[in-house]
UniProtKB/TrEMBL annotation:
Record PANTHER family: ABC TRANSPORTER ATP-BINDING PROTEIN, DOXORUBICIN RESISTANCE ATP-BINDING PROTEIN DRRA
A family per Pfam: ABC_tran
Keywords per UniProt: Antibiotic resistance, ATP-binding, Nucleotide-binding, Transport
SMART domains named in the record: AAA
Membrane topology classification: Peripheral membrane protein
Main localisation: membrane
Species: Citricoccus nitrophenolicus
Entries under PROSITE patterns matching the protein: ABC_TRANSPORTER_1 (PS00211), ABC_TRANSPORTER_2 (PS50893)
Name listed for the protein in its UniProt record: ATP-binding cassette domain-containing protein
A GO term, aspect molecular function: ATP binding
Subcellular location per the Swiss-Prot or TrEMBL entry: Cell membrane
Keyword Transport carried by entry: yes
Lineage: Bacteria, Bacillati, Actinomycetota, Actinomycetes, Micrococcales
Length: 304
């Protein structure tokens, strides 16, 4: 097995333009198997990248290998090993949930019996058993999204692309999807998801990629990205909550104790907080603008 075979994704010099608009601008990426989140604001090019990686779209230039296969020349072979769940549920409205799963299972070469069995397992896992025989046209948005995910999992892909999987879902459905993504990862399926939500990227992904201006502007674990933006600090506040001073720390008990010993003599009455920058602050620092759906805090406005 070559090194490239062990990589989940390998992208070099990838660019995509629509007319005069350059959406991706010479992207380079090498990712191992695992859960990866592509984070970026509206229009950053997340869907465009996912569509290229999942073979739906041909890049203007550059190349991408997924699971060791070229997205253009090995298109067919690659399509059998990946699944894509889009922002808009792509299931047949006229069929029931069970029929959609049966159809997709058979399309992927599974027998009728196996398709039905696996389909019912998936319906159960997503809490859709009561709606098993109901037409999808009667499903709520959240139910459709879950069915969409179930449909893309029936062939047990090695890699699943989830394009903004929880956009528009209520908190409970969102949590159910998060749980399912963790479960998938636990059984060895890799996940490449896009999101505009920092908390989602932080909760799910081992590695976060920040896409902005057609390029990956940062890459790493949530902790690594937070460290790039100044890391952990000890903050001291007075009675009225005003920030009096802020001191860098590595966050360990030894370092916090040492720092506080020095400070306690000077300001014995102040309140202490040990604080890591939020993913929102990280996003602002890395891209120069706030993330979608986020009201900037005073602190972030000051930082901008
Ligand atoms: N087929 C297309 N033809 C022309 N322009 C396109 C096409 N697809 C995408 N674009 C443009 O490319 C840019 C990036 O779009 P894309 O959907 O990849 O962004 P995104 O990061 O997924 O955004 P969102 O979070 O809003 O889904 C946008 O300005 C969009 O209008």
């Amino acid at each position: 097995m070559t090194y490239a075979d062990k990589l989940l994704l390998e992208v070099s010099g990838l660019s995509m333009s629509f007319g005069a608009q350059r959406v991706l601008d010479g992207l380079d990426l090498r990712l191992p198997p695992g859960i990866h989140a592509l984070l970026g604001p509206n229009g950053a090019g997340k869907t465009t990248l996912v569509n290229i990686l999942s073979t739906l779209l041909r890049p203007t230039s550059g190349r991408a290998r997924v699971l060791g296969l070229d997205t253009q020349s090995d298109r067919r072979r690659l399509q059998r090993r990946i699944a894509l769940t889009g922002q808009y549920a792509a299931v047949d409205e006229g069929l029931s949930g069970a029929e959609n799963l049966l159809m997709m299972g058979q399309l992927f070469g599974l027998s009728r019996g196996v398709s039905l069995k696996r389909g019912d397992e998936l319906l159960g896992r997503f809490g859709l058993m009561p709606a098993r025989a109901a037409r999808v046209s009667t499903y709520s948005g959240g139910m459709r999204r879950k069915l969409d995910l179930a449909v893309s999992l029936i062939a047990e892909p090695e890699l699943i692309f989830l394009d903004e999987p929880t956009t528009g879902l209520d908190t409970r459905s969102r949590q159910a999807l998060w749980d399912e993504i963790h479960r998938l990862a636990g059984q060895g399926t890799s996940v490449f998801l896009t999101t505009q939500y920092l908390d989602e990227a932080e909760a799910l992904a081992e590695r976060i990629l920040v896409l902005d201006g057609g390029r990956i502007v940062a890459e790493g674990t949530a902790d690594v990205l937070k460290d790039r933006v100044g890391g952990t600090t000890i903050q001291l506040h007075d009675d009225s909550g005003r920030l009096v001073s802020e001191h860098p720390t590595d966050g360990t008990t030894a370092d916090v104790a040492r720092t506080l010993t020095g400070l306690a003599g000077r300001d014995p009455g102040l309140a202490v907080t040990v604080r890591k920058p939020s993913m929102d602050e990280v996003f602002l620092q890395l891209t120069g603008h706030v993330a979608a759906g986020h009201e900037p805090t005073e602190r972030e406005e000051a930082a901008a």
